[in-house]
Amino acid sequence: MADSEMGEAPLERKQAVYRNLDERFEIQGEKYKGQQYSHIYYVRLHQMRSLLQSFISKWKPHLPVNSVLGLEEGKECIIVGTLYKHMKLKPSVLDEYSKERSAIPLVKPHNFTSTDDHLILEDESGRVKLAGPMLTPLAFVTGIVVAIHGKETSKGDFFVEDFLDAGLPPQVDRPLDSREDKYVAFVSGLSVGSSAFNPLQFQLFVDHITGHLGDENEQRISSQIVRLVIAGNSMHIQQGYFSGQSVAPKDHAKLTEPIRELDIFLTQLVSALPVDIMPGCNDPANYNLPQQPLHRCLFSGASAYNTFTSCTNPHQFDLDNVQFIGTSGQNIDDLYKYSDAKDRIEFMERTLRWRHLAPTAPNTLGCYPYTDKDPFLIESCPHVYFVGNQEKYETRLLQGPDKQSVRLISIPRFCETGVAVMLNLRNLECHALTFSTNL
């Protein structure tokens, strides 16, 4: 019997106004022509220095701003430049070659920091080693632009007495007039095709999101999900198939089966709600950031629906005037290798305060060699900042000095945890959903 005949109105999925803002991450017409990465550092320093100089007049108005070349021993001043972190344990190509030639296998460390690390500040005129306890090398990475207060010592170092980073960028007010509960669901690290992927577990997630699972209350909540964001590493394809060599006929299934299986799941999802899919480091996409959208031809079933959107990584969008930005996790994973923090959320906070999504690019994180812009600069503070493919679910509401409020979300790998994340657009509260096939 139809719902209307039973006197019950059928549930309808709620809608939200969506704007894709990935244009600045799209590579259109640019080509590799031997560009040097110095260009992106120059653009970053130029833009960030202009910003920091507007703050210096309030921070230390009595001190002169000098270049590195203009330092004078014993005279206090401020210098603005890009930090370079000298690391004894940082991997190099020559080291990798020598390890390959070694008969004894060496254990690779997960973190390359050491007590011997030190910081250097560089501008167009030169570089100077930083000294003193004010700047702890553990908390910083190469690529951050800061203002430093101090003086040159007799040894030629610059003794740091204080420093200033850009801080949280300005934020557009979040709309507060909505009284409706609307949810955005996040999931990452599906790894379809790997031994860790459990198809029954993910089918439970699909059935829940699409409203085919649960009691009346759960179905009502499912109808309030206005969008699903899949934040990278959706497929697991053996790296050997990306070497450029031809694939033997007997191996075709190994290459295509994960893609075909993911497309079946995606088709179920996009037939019920809008879905954004981002590439990750293990997906068949370009390796360097910003990663370009996964080609629609990979998903013959899902791409037939206008609710399917293949996005860049990083991904930026606006949903009912709530601003989102997020990555598939490479930026935070790289910070974890070259600096230290109490948790992944703290790394996320730092990128916002430094106003840069991927400060270690291009030093240790691959990125496109831009010559006239740095697309990873954060000019407007998002309301929601998410990062995929992390070890566990974490969240925090970050409050800024100018009433900024940012929901930070660390999304765990679904294939390992069975955890997805739900965010309420109305109040930015979020919670985890756990799916398990264990009895």
Automatic annotation (TrEMBL):
An example molecular function term from Gene Ontology annotations: DNA binding
Determine if Cytoplasm is one of this entry's keywords. Answer: no
Name the domain of life. Eukaryota
Instruction: Identify the residues that the record assigns to the DNA polymerase alpha/delta/epsilon subunit B domain, covering every copy.
Output: 184-393
Which EC class is this protein assigned? transferase
EC number(s) per UniProt? Answer: 2.7.7.7
An annotated GO cellular component of this protein is: delta DNA polymerase complex
A Pfam family the protein falls into: DNA_pol_E_B
Predominantly, its location class is nucleus
Q: Where in the cell is it found?
A: Nucleus
Among PANTHER family, the record links this protein to: DNA POLYMERASE DELTA SUBUNIT 2 (PTHR10416)
Concerning its family, UniProt says: Belongs to the DNA polymerase delta/II small subunit family.
Annotated protein name in UniProt: DNA polymerase delta small subunit
* Lineage, top ranks: Eukaryota, Viridiplantae, Streptophyta, Embryophyta, Tracheophyta
